[in-house]
Amino acid sequence: MIVRDEELTIARCLNCIKDIVDEIIVVDTGSTDKTKDILKNYTNNIYDFKWIDDFSAARNYAFSKATKDYILWLDADDVFLPDDIDKLKLLKQNLNTDVDSVTMRYNIGIDEYGNHASSYRRNRLVKRAKNFVWRGFIHEYLEVYGNIINSDISVTHQKVKATPNRNIEIYEAKLKEGFKLIPRDILYYAHELYDHGRFEEALTNYNNFLDSGLGWYEDNIRVCGNISDYYQSISNFEKSREYSFKSFQYDLPRAEACCRIGFSYLCENKIEQAIFWYELATELKKPENSLGFFNDASWTWLPHLQLCVCYDRIGDHITAFKHNEIAYSYAPNDSKILYNKNYFHSIGINS
């Protein structure tokens, strides 16, 4: 682990894994709170590392201190939920030593109903002897190769405090120094600009990234989605669809793009077109082993809720009701779905 001022979360994280792992190594990059005092309850392997605005440098230093056969890495605001703790214990007992890396799903958002809102996969447990290296000064990634397996274990991100300006400040400091951004840096700088509402700058960088032709296909798909969402937000539905369609150049259609296209047509009251794209979203198979980002709602309840709206608008209340029931099976406490149930009951449709 690498940490800094994590007194609110570090114990929660370490309590999940303290009885599973064989050693705990923590690199502190300059804490001024009680983080180190808390860490002493879990490990003596606490190291200081001067922060140089380079996450990979800190993570590689942490990896250099490991002594066991495999390295599991976590951030301080990550946890394993009870089922995943059990799965991790089983993995430790049964892992074939020919495996070089184990990916785990990373749940970075939980909706109000306890469902995963957004997730992707990361190489989370790696063989130490392979000497895998972290790359990138920010939004770093672990460069992994060899025998990689995808596990059914999830790491859940439970953020307590936010550092909204840290990353963009690092990028802009690098730019002032004359640092030349590689395509991956351009991508994540664009993400930061987008998250800070600097949309014109974000779109310029996003399009530069796509035009480079050097992006990973999953990143290209995500960029198309963000640009599509921006144009949707300013009611430029045709431009929004353009980028959703563009995402099909990089892989098979994704439910997220189909839902975006469906919504753009729904906003234009083109109901038949909206129905087509929402129904397509319900028929697609999610690529479970992909390392890309997924909005899980688009693969579960969202297209059914929207199909309920569409079919109701054209007077097909029976089909609308059926889709609302499917949405209800995923999100039984959603206020919109419950409102629809009452609406159908009021017009005499219950089954």
TrEMBL record:
Source organism superkingdom: Bacteria
Alphabetical list of Gene3D superfamilies matching this protein: Spore Coat Polysaccharide Biosynthesis Protein SpsA, Chain A (3.90.550.10), Tetratricopeptide repeat domain (1.25.40.10)
Keywords: Transferase
Gene Ontology MF terms: transferase activity
Domain Glycosyltransferase 2-like: 2-129
PANTHER family tied to this protein: GLYCOSYLTRANSFERASE, POLY-BETA-1,6-N-ACETYL-D-GLUCOSAMINE SYNTHASE
Record's protein name: Glycosyl transferase
Organism: Clostridium manihotivorum
